[in-house]
Write a structure and sequence with these properties.
By secondary structure, this protein is mainly beta. It has helices at 2-12, 27-31, 35-38, and strands at 42-46, 51-54, 63-67, 73-80, 83-87, 93-97, 101-102, 106-109, 114-117, 126-130, 135-142, 145-150, 153-158, 162-163, 171-172. It has three helices and 15 strands.
Length: 173
């Protein structure tokens, strides 16, 4: 099952296989409110190697999930004191301490191996192939494209192949 595979990759910091499916593809998900599609919230990234996702905004609340992947993008949808309610790329939601998050923008490569191009155009020169599940830093998005750095590779990837930006969101950090 995709959910179990993806969560296993988060816990083990394993390179993700090309068999991963897009986030939120079930018919049940399509009927629910989708804050990413709506452009609600703020994307941030986990800045520690171990971060607990809790059921409620309290230190003694049940730990729902443990992330061991620094740099993973999450969507912050609510704030309470020094806690942030986040949604991960798989759609899992819970509370995380604010000091575990940074405004540094990162993205997750979705679904399968993707091509990085030298320019933001489909007819540009392909420069790198990037496996699904890789996390990269994004500093610039223009229209359908984002300029991403993953490891030592930098190039342009279609925004629809990434999780961590809103559709139509243009920015330059």
């Amino acid at each position: 099952m995709v959910g179990a595979f993806f969560r296993g990759a988060l816990l083990a910091f394993i390179a993700v296989s090309a068999n991963a499916a897009p986030v939120g593809t079930s018919t049940q998900d399509s009927a629910r409110y989708d804050p990413v599609a709506a452009g609600d919230g703020q994307f941030m990234s986990i800045i520690v190697d171990k971060a607990n996702l809790r059921a409620a905004p309290r230190q003694d609340s049940l730990i729902q999930w443990v992330y061991v992947r620094s740099g993973l993008p999450v969507l912050v949808t609510e704030q309470y004191d020094n806690w942030r309610k986040v949604i991960d790329p798989e759609g899992v939601s819970g509370w995380m301490r604010a000091d575990l998050l940074a405004e540094r923008r990162t993205v997750l490569v979705l679904e399968r191996t993707r091509t990085m191009f030298d320019r933001p155009r489909a007819d540009a020169n392909p420069e790198y192939l990037v496996e699904a599940g890789n996390v990269g830093t994004v500093r610039l998005c223009q229209e359908a494209w984002c300029r991403v750095t993953i490891g030592s590779a930098t190039g342009w990837i279609l925004r629809t192949h990434l999780w961590g930006t809103f559709d139509g969101e243009d920015f330059d950090q």
